[in-house]
Write a sequence for this structure.
């Protein structure tokens, strides 16, 4: 299933963005949804995940305290609120989903095509 991200863009250092990941095509009752990012020349890294079954969340150390992941059950969308952005956050951001709680591993089954975040 192709997930659809939106909300990327260009922002100045210290600014905020909110990314969205539409999950409408997924049939899982409970879902593990992760946000990943990949900067040019770097490996893809997981930044945040949420398990909709119990609301449990996990964040990578670089984004703890600045990013917040949430799930809106009404519109079946996962959001990533990103605050106090820095140039080091510049990357293509991808959402991924699976029926199992995969934390920030790379083994998710369903992926989006990404949305670009640029911080200057």
């Amino acid at each position: 299933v192709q997930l659809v991200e939106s909300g990327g863009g260009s922002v100045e250092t210290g600014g905020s963005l909110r990314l969205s990941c539409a999950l409408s095509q997924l049939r899982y009752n409970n879902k593990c949804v992760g946000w990943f990012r990949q900067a040019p020349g770097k490996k893809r890294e997981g930044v945040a995940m949420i398990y909709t079954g119990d609301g449990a969340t996990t964040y990578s150390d670089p984004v703890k305290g600045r990013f917040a992941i949430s799930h809106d059950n009404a519109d079946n969308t996962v959001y990533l609120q990103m605050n106090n952005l820095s140039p080091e956050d510049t990357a293509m951001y991808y959402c991924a989903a699976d029926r199992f709680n995969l934390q920030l591993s790379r083994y998710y089954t369903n992926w989006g095509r990404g949305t670009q975040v640029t911080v200057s």
Summary: DSSP finds no helices and eleven strands in the chain. The mean pLDDT is 94. The two ends are 33 Å apart (CA to CA).
